[in-house]
Design brief:
The complex is a heterodimer of chains A (92) and B (483). Chain A contains 3 helices and no strands. By secondary structure, chain A is mainly alpha-helical. Chain B is an alpha/beta fold and 483 residues long. Helix content of chain B is 38%, strand content 13%. Chain B has 15 helices and 11 strands. In chain B, helix 9 packs across helix 12. Classes of the chains: A mainly alpha (92), B alpha/beta (483).
Chain lengths: 92, 483
């Protein structure tokens, strides 16, 4: 896998790498993709209808409002919080 | 008598007869954790104080004659199962300080039973791996040989059971993560049918494959735990409303006439000779008990590892996008803007293997590659399911090795992710097909390392694979771990 592709995938995944890490990741990914490429040999087509056997659309639970967790609990695991999730300025 | 070496069934009877108090039992495990876990490194968090309190409460129930099957039984919990007020790290720096404010449904169920949680045990980071060596905290060792891995990802759970640092444990299984470490550590591990146990509060890896299950000293103990944790949960839309039977019901029943399929591809090249021989010897033993062995074939097995890694990584890349450093989890101190804050937090919080899976998942799902990889993997999933359905028209259960080899050295394979992935060949199809599978020890190699065999069942038929595993265990003497 070339470095441009690795860089592109890292952007998609919101990951950042140093140049050295990128090189290593490219090597690892090449080995992994070789295994994944084995599935190209076999001729099979996905049938979405067949895959619906696990879906019980007539069996959904009723849409009843329930209590939410208290805000203080929701925020307890946020590192930077002042009664809200604090993020860097988004709009310039 | 060493209390910690006993099975749940024995402990239950001693607790009920008041030959032993819940506190004495809990203390025995806590003492053993103190004595040996420095070497084994299975526990990330020991909840001694809470365990003592839970034991007291359990004793009250026992005294009133209200004890259910797990009342007063000390258990270890994999660190990806949310525990109210107790750190749940997933063995990742990303969640190093994460303290859930709610219980996973399985924890509520265990608490209602009066089970005693001893603590949270290590795993591969976010359950991605088969060695527990990708843990950011405790790289657990194998109790049979401390220079070898315990398997993974539920390596802490399996090692703790094997070394008698808990009576039993909960693990989770996405591609073999309960069965393979159970095989490596010489214990019994059960992956239930997808949907049998609620996933609410299990930190998501690959949602269409993940399932919580027990690891214990016997198939019977696994059944007792599955009885406690199974059932529909409105918090998990994929949990099943199917009736939950008593999973111990078939234990002890004659297996005469049971049809056991032996798919040839699972015994082919790549499977260690000693492993193959031990599992085939177990097949012969079943025959001597009156079971009928059936030859069968699963031609798609050679594509299973690729299909599994494409599907699981695609789902993981999506599931793990929630870790942004803002709502919970590690937050970087560097980052001038929103995008930088997120990528720095993820860069610092995730380990190498997790990053590789996110990269692979994004590759499989990205434009121009989707049909060739993810689409093809989903088609293979259907094919593998069909092949299982065909095999099950002629048999009751399927017998395979649990892993191609016994536990390997702690430094082996780690630098070659592609090689590590191939080692999952024996377990991944069970998750792909949503089936139940149980691994139990069927022998030891020339160096004394445990060899595991897997018994795979029809959907919702955990009771039969438990029956088959139990029938073997009843006449098999396990060698104790050296630790």
């Amino acid at each position: 896998m070339d470095l441009d592709m690795v860089r592109y995938l890292s952007q998609l995944g919101r990951l950042s790498f140093t140049d050295e890490e990128l090189e290593k990741m490219a090597g690892d990914m090449t080995g992994i993709i070789e295994i994944m490429d084995t599935i190209k040999e076999i001729d099979v087509t996905y049938d979405p209808i067949k895959d619906n056997h696990n879906v019980y659309l007539n069996d959904l639970r009723k849409d009843i409002a329930a209590d939410s967790y208290p805000t203080a609990q929701i925020l307890q695991n946020a590192v930077n919080s002042e009664d809200a999730f604090v993020v860097p300025k988004v709009v310039e | 008598m060493d209390l910690t070496a006993l099975k749940i069934s024995d402990l239950r009877s001693m607790l009920d007869k008041k030959e032993l108090s819940a506190k004495e039992l809990t203390d025995a495990y806590l003492d053993r954790i103190k004595a040996v876990d420095d070497k084994l490194e299975s526990y990330i968090t020991v909840t001694a104080e809470a365990a003592e309190k839970a034991a007291e409460k359990a004793q009250e129930k026992i005294n009133k004659g209200e004890a259910s099957a797990l009342c007063g039984i000390p258990l270890a919990i994999k660190d990806n199962i949310c525990t109210d007020g107790v750190k749940t790290t997933c063995s990742s720096k990303m969640l190093e300080n994460f303290v859930p404010f709610y219980n996973a449904t399985v924890m509520d169920k265990l608490e209602n039973e009066g089970a005693v949680m001893l603590g949270k045990v290590s795993m591969d980071e976010f359950a991605m791996g088969g060695s527990t060596q990708t843990s950011a905290f405790k790289k657990t060792k194998n109790p049979y040989d401390l220079t070898r891995v315990p398997g993974g990802s539920s390596g802490g759970s399996a090692a703790a059971v094997s070394a008698s640092l808990c009576a039993a444990a909960l693990g989770s299984d996405t591609g073999g993560s309960i069965r393979q470490p159970s095989s490596f550590c010489g214990v019994t591990g059960l992956k239930p049918t997808y949907g049998r146990v609620s996933r609410y509060g299990l930190v998501a890896f690959a949602s269409s494959l993940d399932q919580i299950g027990p690891i214990a000293k016997s198939a019977e103990d696994c059944a007792v735990i599955l009885n406690a944790i199974a059932g529909y949960d409105p918090h998990d839309g994929t949990s099943s409303k199917n009736e939950v039977p008593d999973f111990t019901a078939k234990i002890g029943r004659d297996i005469k006439g049971m049809k056991i399929a032996v798919p040839k591809e699972f015994y082919a090249e790549g499977i260690d000779d000693e492993v193959r021989k031990a599992v085939l010897a177990a097949a012969d033993y079943y025959k001597s008990l009156g079971a009928e062995l059936v030859d069968c074939s699963m031609p798609s097995l050679k594509y299973a590892v690729a299909a599994y890694y494409l599907i699981s990584s695609a789902e993981a890349s999506s599931n793990l996008s929630r870790f942004d450093g803002i709502k919970y989890g590690h937050r970087s101190e560097e980052g001038e803007n929103f995008a930088e804050l997120i990528s720095n937090s993820r860069r610092e919080g995730f380990g190498e293997e997790v990053k590789r899976r996110i990269m692979l998942g994004n590759y499989a799902l990205s434009s121009g590659y989707y049909d060739a990889y993810y689409g093809k993997a989903m088609a293979l999933k259907q094919k593998i399911r069909e092949e299982y359905e065909n095999i099950f028209t002629g048999c009751d259960v399927i017998l395979t090795p649990t892993a191609p080899t016994v536990a390997y050295g702690v430094n082996e394979n780690i630098s070659d992710p592609a090689k590590m992935y191939q080692a999952d060949i024996c377990t991944v199809t069970v998750n792909i097909a949503s089936l139940p599978g149980i691994s139990t020890t069927c022998g030891y190699d020339s160096k004394g390392m445990p060899i595991g065999m897997s018994i795979i069942g029809k959907k919702w038929d955990e009771a039969t694979i438990i029956q088959a595993a139990d029938a073997f265990e009843k006449n098999f003497t396990r060698q104790n771990a050296s630790l």
